[in-house]
Amino acid sequence: LLCEPKTYPTQKQAETLDFWVPDTVLSIAEGDKVDFRVEGYVAYDVQALIEHSGMPFEIMIEDVQLAVQREQDSNIRAVHSYEKYNDIDTINAWTGSIAEENPDLVSRSFFTTSYEGRPVYLLKVGKSGSNKKAIFIDCGFHAREWVTPAFCQWFVKEAINSYGSDEEFTNLLDNLDFYILPVLNVDGYAYSWTNDRLWRKTRSLNKNQKCVGTDPNRNFDAAWCTGGASASPCSTVYCGSTPESENETKALGDFIRNNLSSIKGYLTIHSYSQMLLFPYSYTNLRAKDHNELNSLAKSAVEKLATLHGTVYTYGPGGKTIYISAGGSDDWAYDTGVKYSYTFELRDLGTYGFLLPESQIKDTCEETMLAVKHIAEHILNNA
Ligand SMILES: [Zn+2]
């Protein structure tokens, strides 16, 4: 499987396999390290095949079902908690109460309605002022990346708790607005709670197709549906019928287009693999602002590591990691948002998407350091 990923079993079949890192067989080159999940008895066949080939391999999660059961290891019994994974209804209710309780710092607006009819809410966090620069942060693009909505909630909590007591964060909130979108792909996220913990895409039906959903992070007009994206609706990296074919991605595109004069930064939070990436992912060519984006990424991951020693790699998506077209970070950058970054949070594959709740706090705390560092640079330079 690993030596000839594009020919075995067939490309179409291989595209439907569940690759975790990178997120599709289409992005794998010979010699790459990959994480993927194999189901049931096939796992033994695949293991035998790899053993026979002599390639080095390691089983990170022997029993995914068991890891799912152990993931929710918090003892907290409150309905909503920042140190637990919260389901979509709980997060939506939280967006309402957090805005209601902190009207001078947080406001909630209706972002869009999802394909299945769920509300998508946006929070605006910051002290009111005129002509403020803004940073847009989204979480929950990919349904199974549960630690990412946890981070967006954590950010809002920290902003509220720090305002007036922490000089650095107070300064950021006085001078910047943060748009926080806790869960973009609300339908996929709900489905990952009720039906398939490892679901990735949206839940929109594809015309005359049995397979459901589009990969929202292949659905933007940035070399759309070329490298590392698939035109097959059964693929986990299906690019959709057109750019911004999904209600959720269209709403994000519209919002950024309509607020281009104020939005100076775009941070999209994913997991896992501990990386900080910036444009481009659709090409190996360097972005115009490569040097500045690169040195800011370097200092941000250094800052992140100071808390718990968590090591991040960083660089332009395509060149350092792998080519993938149609991502929101590349699109935002080409649209005019210079400081455009993708975070891939913890871990390196020990738990992968099934990061135990007991790691939410440390993950969010360290990520906050990097995000605040980037925000400070934007405040001083944009
Ligand atoms: Zn992702």
Name given to the CATH homologous superfamily of the largest domain: Zn peptidases
What is the subunit arrangement here?
Answer: single chain
Q: Estimate nothing, just give the exact number of structural domains.
A: 2
Bound molecules: zinc ion
Query: What value does the Rg take, in angstroms?
Result: 20 Å
- What is the C-level CATH assignment of the largest domain? Alpha Beta
Q: Record the strand order, biggest sheet.
A: 3-4-6-5-7-10-8-9
**CATH topology category name of the largest domain:** Aminopeptidase
SSE ordering? HEEHHHEEEHHEHHEEHEHHEH
Helix-and-strand structural type: alpha/beta
Can you name the CATH architecture of the largest domain? 3-Layer(aba) Sandwich
- Mean pLDDT over the residues: 94
Helical amount among residues, as a percent range? 25-40%
Q: Indicate the overall shape.
A: globular
Number of strands: 10
Q: DSSP helix count?
A: 12
- Main beta sheet: strand number and arrangement? 8 strands, mixed
Poorly predicted parts: 1-8
Organism: Leptobrachium leishanense (Leishan spiny toad)
Domain Peptidase M14: 84-378
Subcellular location: Zymogen granule lumen
Cofactor: Zn(2+)
Give a short summary of the structure:
The protein has 382 residues and is of the alpha/beta class. It has 12 helices and 10 strands. It folds into 2 domains: 11-59, no CATH class; 85-381, 3-Layer(aba) Sandwich (Aminopeptidase).
